Amino acid sequence: MNIKKLAMLTAVLAASVVAGTAGAQDNDKQYRFVMVSHIGSNDPNMNWLTLSLKEFEKKYPNVKTEYISTNNYSVQEHVRLLEQAIATHPDGIAVPIVSSDAFEGPLRKAIDEGIPVVAFNIPDSRPAGERIPYLTYVGGDEYLTGKKLGEYAIEQAKEGKIPQPKHVVCASHDSAHQGLKARCKGMKDAMAAVGAKFDELFIGAEPAGARNALQSFLQANPDTNYIFTVAGWSAPWAWSVANEMKLDPDVDDKGMTILTVDEGPVSIEGVRAGHLLATNSQGFWLQGYEPMEWLYWNKKFGYAPQSDILTGPVIINKDNADQWAKQVRAVFGDKAYDEQNTW
Amino acid sequence: MTNDHPLIQVKNLDLYFGAFHALRNVSVDFHAGELVGLVGDNGAGKTTLIRVLCGIHAPTSGEVFFDGRRAEKFHPKLAIDQGIETIQQSVGLCDNLSIARNFYLGREPVKRILGIPFLDFALMREKSARVIRQFGLRDNVSTDDEVERLSGGERQSVKIGRAVEFKNRVVIMDEPTNHLSVREREHVNELAVQLKEQGLLVIYITHDIFQVHKLADRIVIMENGSKVADASTDAMTAEELEEVIRQGGRVVEKRETA
Amino acid sequence: MKHLVRSQGFGAVIGVAVMLAVFTLVDFSGWWTVPTVSNVTQFASILAFVTMGEALVIMTKEIDLSVGSVYGLAGVSFITLEPPLGVPGSLLVALLIAALAGLGQGIAVVKGQLPSMIVTLGGLFIARGIIYVWTGGSVHNFSPDARAHPLTRVLGGELFGVEAAIFWIVAIAALLGLMLWATPFGNRLLATGGGRESAESRGVRTERVKIVTFVLCSLLAGFAGILTLCNQPQTHVTLGENMELEAISAAVIGGCLLTGGRGSILGAILGALIVVSFRYELIALGAPSSWYITFVGVVLIAAVIFNQSLARRLGHSV
Predict the structure, then answer these.
(1) ipTM of the assembly?
(2) Which subunits have 3 or more CB–CB pairs within 8 Å of chain A?
(3) Is residue B88 situated within a structural domain?
(4) Interface of B with C in 36-55 (CB under 8 A)
């Protein structure tokens, strides 16, 4: 984005914010909450949040919500947007803690000024005492994502619908990402309960390289019968590698079983087609709605939740996948949904 | 031997490298069938002048006429196409290539197979070996060997052999006898005279006024980027010319046309 | 034999021999199986395409950091343009896009007299950025019709149980090897890298040589992207990410000297084979797979030291 466009965007932003403030002064019960998000309009996932904000405004007519994000994402850009938002003195802020270091300063300043802050989608992962003192965290839990999916698989195996896990590989595309590590850890702990072997495999994000790595692993470890991909978009790669190796990757009582994450079209369609056993939802819609609700009741009565609010994980399997597909289609729009279905 | 119409005519040539004034208002004519000695100390501008003639540098101002036509663009390829062969001191051989490949670099002989031009290795080896051996090349060195294995004299042999092989209208020799043995040196000098006698223009650059005086029809002396003397060897002795170099700067214009 | 020893690929020949010997010793039963060998050779041949182009560029004493992104861009174009243009049409347009990327960068390097490191770093970001903007973060899959198209099968299928990519690499490597070794253009390419001024003084248009080489490099990277997707049309915007590093490493391991003028097509292919084999064997031996990149680094440095001492022994000045 060039400077001119950026300046224009900033101006428009500032104008809308000023107009909002003016409105609030007319009616003292009017609140203005800002969601400073890491999900830009080029990602259809944004609609989960914007649609839930719209729904929230309907239920709470005296609240005006704003959704701010950028398409060319960087932490610096995000911090800049956050600082701009704080400068307009909103009544509350919801923000994902993408980087606790970078967000610490501006958020502490906002909290000191009396602006309540709710973390959504990504918490401050540091120990309780060192955290940014936000009101609460609304979102999923990476560890539980892995754990619940693992437990679901074990249940299915006990019923004889899928093979017992012998050797599970967690295929991760980013070896430095704490969230992905936590997903693998959750799966590992679940599988430890039934004594299955577990490996974490760094496959990288590059499709050919990832296939190569996964194929190498499966050849060297032929007892592997579960693959857990910690991103939805790498699930088709895992499936096609296993399929090419004639490991029978579709969901049945033999061969390979594949699990993935996210309520994106790839994951859901994979489940519907019988390629994937299950995926999960982090309750994305709630991650837009719920922070606003807590900001509202905090503002109004001073309520504050005493623990994090987990909106997920919810298991998506072949029983509820159709329902999810319909819902995600409504959020994404047919075009984006079909485009993202890369099976 | 010479005719009225110069083969190469340089008019009021100036060349700057940044602030450095490398050539100062140089004008000089060269005729076909002439062997011209271009003499001067290090940094006098001899090499810079011939680098303009062979297309490596473009002049800042001034004109160069080749065969009466004004040169508009300067590129080694254009100079070569005009028939100017240059034996340069520091450049001309790629160390990573074999002798045969260097010999034919830029004008490789090809055999076409299905219309695709393939290098004619047999011709390249055979002919380059024959030509270069005249000028000195150890018997145990093959033309498939890389140039970096060669001694200084052998490298010079490759360059000279190449210039002779592709001789066209002009052969420019920049210190051609450096690194050569006495016998090889004589051979090169004889060759320069032979080329001249075949009607080519030979420009022979050297420090050694006494050596070139014996060969040349005319001596051009450069000093500090300017031409300071231009005299036929009949008109001035080597000692007189050496005096000019020693004094530096006094322009001498004595020339007799034959 | 003498010819082979003196060629730039010789270090890589030894490298492959040593590597195979070691892998045989430590993991005989795992390594010498049909699936392993076919897995490794298939991915090695895809990397080898990119590496060959990179090697040619390095031989002209330039470098191309954009190959991974161009590989991705061509692949993504091929998939994304297939619905409107059909398989042959999108194949041509994807290759054209790759060629234009190379042409643009080549011209910028030569005419702008800019360091290729900077120009192609820009190219890397630009091409990747275009992928993101164009696809909005996700890349289509081929329709069943497109997958069954004869052209897709020829590029990405199997022949006699051997992946098509392997036939393609053999054919195109042979052509490139001939071009480099036995044509005037090859002679001028090596001369451009070995001594630009000398080449120019012999009338070689080194600027054109460089531009053509950049185009060739991008075309090879693009073709590799297309081959990959013909075989496995499910892909992602990360297609080709970090591939430039693997390709440069493979080229260097294969005996290309960054000082220009020396390198070989055979070496490039063997370099790619070494890089991919290491990835397999590290995973097979149960080393944490994030170690792969560390090992590539170690092999790279070892290869540079080995190739240089080999070159010195042969009397090359390096």
Answers:
(1) 0.85
(2) C
(3) no
(4) 54
